[in-house]
């Protein structure tokens, strides 16, 4: 099984332009929330908990994150829990509101992602490895931790493999 650093470094190799990383801080949370919203129907309440396909998806993702790293895994589990809470709230609203919120977040989130990859000049990581879809949210959390000065040992290991971040100059068309 790949390590935390293996997954983050592979994903980071597609994300070295700081503008692309910044776009991921907006786009990826929107997409994760959209998936939680859209998978929150059909669902039903059991002992005060909303059980839906989103619950199973979040549990599987939480197990993946926790197996990679306990600290990041706990944070990711908490964030997924917040997404499930929002998804359940929207799932209990009208169908129009539920669908509009879910689809709107999903489409706008992906537009933001592709704008970031325009600056990067490189396709998204998931095109070459579908694991990028589950590593992306973890990458955003890890990058936030790095910005806060946390988990420096992980940051250094990722940068050693993927290289430093930068602002890429766009080549002029001749």
What is the compact description of this entry?
By secondary structure, this protein is mainly α. It has one domain.
Give structural notes.
The model has no long low-confidence stretch (mean pLDDT 92). The N and C termini lie far apart (46 Å). A two-stranded antiparallel ribbon has the order 1-2. With 174 residues, the chain is mainly alpha-helical. α1 packs across α6 and α2 (18-38) packs across α3 (53-68). Helix content is 70%, strand content 3%. A hairpin with a 2-residue loop joins β1 (44-46) and β2. It has one domain. The protein is globular and about 45 Å long.
Rg over CA atoms: 17 Å
What is the number of beta strands? Answer: 2
Number of domain units: 1
Global morphology: globular
The unreliable regions are: none
What is the N-to-C succession of helices and strands?
HHEEHHHHH
Helix coverage percent of residues?
A: 55-70%
Mean pLDDT: 92
Spatial strand sequence of the major β-sheet: 1-2
Strand content bin: under 5%
Distance between the first and last residues' Cα: 46 Å
The number of helices is: 7
Helix-and-strand structural type: mainly alpha
Largest sheet descriptor: 2 strands, antiparallel
Helices and strands in order:
Layout: H1 4-12, H2 18-38, E1 44-46, E2 49-51, H3 53-68, H4 70-91, H5 95-120, H6 132-147, H7 152-162
Helix pairs in contact: 1-6, 1-7, 2-3, 2-4, 2-5, 2-6, 3-4
